[in-house]
Amino acid sequence: MKRNIQRRGGACGIVCGTVRRQFRILCILMLLPVSVLWAVPDSDLLKKVDSLASYFGTDFSAQYTIVQNKPGGKPTTTVAGVFRRDSQETYVIVVMQPSISRGQGYLKQGQTLWFYDPESRRFNSSSNQDRFQNTNARNSDFTRSTLSEDYRVVRGEDVKLGQYNCRVLTLEATTKEVTYPKMKIWVDEQGLLRKTEDYSLSGQLLRTSAVPEYTTMNGRYVPAKILFVDALRGATINGRFVNEETQITITKPSFEKVPDSVFSKTFLEQVNR
What we know:
Blueprint: H1 2-31, H2 34-38, H3 42-53, E1 60-69, E2 76-85, E3 90-97, E4 105-109, E5 112-117, E6 122-126, H4 147-150, E7 151-161, E8 164-173, E9 182-188, E10 193-199, E11 205-217, E12 220-237, E13 240-254, H5 265-270
Antiparallel strand pairs: 1-2, 1-13, 2-3, 3-4, 4-5, 5-6, 7-8, 8-9, 9-10, 10-11, 11-12, 12-13
């Protein structure tokens, strides 16, 4: 009988010790930041950013209102219709306002980008790196996200950006076809892009952008507003340098199928006839 009691006591000690260890581990885990618990490799996080900012399996269209603010001058507004078919690497942009630019358009087909001028009725070759309508937005800002294809992650860290817990990824380009050879991006816990800093090859800051608001539709995320701040262009007013800014407001988003004929030169030639 005594041996049986000793054996039961030993077993009880083992069980109790195991429970105590599990409790200590649980307490430690509860003290860790939430992001540590569900963290994924930074390369996978970059792919998630792309997946949320790209629309495969469906077309996308919306109205973009682009307000350019140059210090010391009056804001200028451009309104454009944007049509994307990410699965085929194509998009069309038609400028509707101002009247002086009405009918101008862009057609991207793969790596080729055309700009259409209705006055001359000619198509001229353009580039993803070019400024859109002389604003602080670039043509590459209107297409699907390809960060995981064009960049490698060289560093990642957890930070707080306002109300958001974010992962900051420092990126270096793996191709010469990108607009910016170096970037920093702030990704929130959902995998949504909240802020970017764009750099030259030498490391000079060129532009900062922010996405303060998203709308959701059919389980997909669409930026509601995007703000671009040019780090180099601006003017000195009252002794202080004021940067140029461009704000894009995206309204009337749709994931309905866009007619195939829209993604063509013929569409841009006929749209204002």
